[in-house]
Design a protein that fits this description.
The complex is a heterodimer of chains A (292) and B (146). Chain A has a single domain, classed as P-loop containing nucleotide triphosphate hydrolases (Rossmann fold), CATH 3.40.50.300. With 292 residues, chain A is of the alpha/beta class. The relative contact order of chain A is 0.17. In chain A, α6 links the parallel β8 and β9. Chain A contains nine helices and eleven strands. In chain A, α2 crosses α9. In chain A, the strands form two sheets. In chain A, strands 1, 2, 5, 6, 7, 8, 9, 10 and 11 form a nine-stranded mixed beta sheet that branches. In chain A, strands 3-4 form a two-stranded antiparallel sheet. Chain B is built from seven helices and six strands, in the order ββββααααβααβα. Chain B has a four-stranded antiparallel beta sheet. Chain B has a two-stranded parallel sheet with strand order 5-6. In chain B, β1 and β2 form a beta hairpin. The chains are: A alpha/beta (292), B alpha+beta (146). Chains A and B meet through α1, β3, β4 and α4 of A and β2, α1, α3 and α4 of B.
Chain lengths: 292, 146
């Protein structure tokens, strides 16, 4: 009796061919984007999305074209940060979906753009009992579609705002093998550093290039007098970078305005690039540009 | 997955004609041995159906003919997706799909959606129908089953 390998093809579906075609489609989108960078942290709540949005603003300020992929499928926040509202229609044609255009012309794609209302949850089925069987597969496929079916056009940078944790990097690495690298983000607290260490170790083991480590919320800057004060008790993040043998990209003091858009729809960086925090973001971007 | 006809020692082929699966339900896929003509059906429960449907590949020879709609898997799976997303899929110059029909075809498991679409279009073409609506889809299901 013939075995699996004796049978050529798969009975008409050509699954292998389809997978190759999906890969080619993805490639044709990504080939038009010069640099792809993931911003991640093992820990939630360290300011990844706000920092991603402001790094994007800083890159735009320096004359680059930038897009953001919101890879946080279940907790998307980039639309909110870039001022994209739910009333905006999704434009779909046979070539794909048009990305949203947020503050400062930053292109974006996020699950939030696909949902019917601002308070709609990400639910993959009307039959929740079936969820556990395939939710992880669905999320991997959704991430591929968000990248490959979005008409990004020509971009200098695609920033990928990763969800908390380090599991999604496996998907991103598989989808974007030419990833310029990841920027790891931590706050000074020992707990955050403990978890981010795991994320760094995993990336090292997977040979995912690490551009460097950013110390976010490193102290508090008073918006009135620019005086700095401590925010978290914690160990020296610079030391962690040295221990893990990765570049330390700098510290960004916390400014409560960083996660907000101004009344004019601008991102924090554009309005406050001369502030202590604004300068710190600029310095981190300098380090990223040097590294890639 | 491949299917072998043991008496003939030949690979069985996916049968794509006349399949109109129920939306989000158990599914039957037909395979036939081209040597002896013996047919079998692979039956999947709703968990298996959903799982395969999330992989983003399609079954049957129609898979190669039809360009998958953008965000095709997400559109079919997202419980509270935008209207534009739900209605983006079918496009055929010769036929007009009503909104209801577009939504219903999107609910067919992704990997057999093209097969279902092909079945509906062929049914409509044979009868000179140019508008695909929910009633026609009910009729197709009743006539061709699976």
């Amino acid at each position: 009796m013939k075995t699996y390998d004796d049978l050529a093809g798969d009975g008409g579906s050509n699954i292998v061919g389809q997978v190759q075609a999906l890969g080619e489609k993805l490639r044709s989108r990504l080939d038009r984007i010069k640099h792809k960078i993931a911003l991640m942290s093992g820990k939630g709540g360290v300011g990844k999305s706000s920092l991603t949005a402001n790094v994007a603003a800083c890159l735009v300020d320096r004359g680059h074209t930038v897009g953001i992929l919101d890879a946080d499928l279940n907790g998307p926040s980039i639309c909110h940060l870039l001022g994209l509202t739910h009333t905006q229609k999704l434009v779909i044609d046979e070539n794909g979906v048009q990305p949203g255009t947020g503050a400062h012309g930053i292109k974006l794609m996020s699950m939030d753009m696909l949902l019917s209302s601002p308070d709609s949850p990400i639910m993959w089925t009307d039959e929740p009992e079936a969820n556990a069987t395939w939710v992880s597969t669905m999320e991997s496929t959704a991430l591929r579609e968000l990248i490959a079916d979005t008409q990004w056009g020509d971009l200098d940078f695609l920033l990928i705002d990763m969800p908390p944790g380090s599991d999604r990097i496996d998907n991103i690495r598989g989808l974007i093998p030419e990833l310029a690298g990841v920027v790891e983000i931590t706050i000074p607290s020992p707990l955050s550093q403990h978890i981010v260490t795991k994320s760094i170790t995993k990336n090292n083991k997977m040979k995912v290039p690490i551009i460097g480590l950013v110390e976010n919320m490193a102290g508090y800057t008073c918006p009135h007098c620019d005086k700095e004060g401590p925010l978290f008790e914690g160990e020296d993040v610079h030391e962690l970078a040295m221990k893990k043998n990765i570049p330390y990209l700098g510290k960004i003091p916390f400014d409560p305005r960083i996660g907000q858009r101004t009344d004019s729809g601008s991102l924090y960086y554009m309005e406050h690039k001369g502030s202590v925090t604004g300068k710190a973001i600029g310095s981190v971007v300098d380090q990223i540009l040097k590294a890639i | 997955m491949k299917f072998l006809c043991i008496p003939c020692d030949e690979q069985m082929e996916t049968q794509t004609g006349g399949i109109m699966p129920e939306e989000k339900k158990n599914l039957a896929m037909k395979f036939k041995c081209k040597k002896c003509g013996h047919s079998i059906a692979m039956l999947t429960n709703k968990f298996e159906t959903e799982f395969v449907s999330k992989l983003g590949v399609q079954m049957g020879d129609s898979a190669a003919e039809t360009k998958a709609a953008p965000m095709g898997v997400v559109a079919g799976a997202l419980a509270e997706g935008k209207e534009e997303l739900k209605k983006s899929a079918p496009k055929d110059d010769d036929f007009e799909w009503t909104d209801e029909a577009k939504e219903r075809i999107q609910r067919v498991p992704f990997f057999v959606r093209n097969m279902a679409k092909k079945t509906v279009l062929s049914f409509a073409r044979e009868r000179g129908i140019t508008v695909i609506d929910g009633k026609l889809m009910d009729e197709v299901r009743e006539k061709v089953g699976m």
